[in-house]
Amino acid sequence: MAMHTEDEFDNFQEQTQEKGVIDLAKMVGQLMVENQKRDQILDNLLSKLTLENQKIYQLLFDGNRNKAEVWLKNLDSAQILHELPDNYMLETARTRMIEAAYQWYWTKTREIHTWQDFRDNFKKTFIKEESMTSKVEEDN
Q1: How far is CA 58 from CA 54, 55, 98, 122, in A?
Q2: What is the mean pLDDT of residues 83-89?
């Protein structure tokens, strides 16, 4: 069994400490890279969430008659695409109405029991029907 001198022990200790410092510096560098990756992922996620919020906001209806027909068609398309039941559509429409449209809905709750009831009442209130005369005149 070899005996180690005090100088050998000190030399080993210095090398170990230097290696520890190098390993620590390497670890800190790796942590910084990982933090940058995490920050980039968070930025991307926030951007996507913001975009999703914008899309959801576009699905809201505030009572603007100029947007009513498109809003209802979007709901109808979603129903067909996702095969959604009528009771789900009624609840979806209710939760997507804000401001004047929201107030309108609550004045109609006694009349609206089905998705078709909603659609009929909504069209009567928000979607301007062209008269037959104006349709005939457009065709000529």
Answers
A1: 6, 5, 12, 18
A2: 90
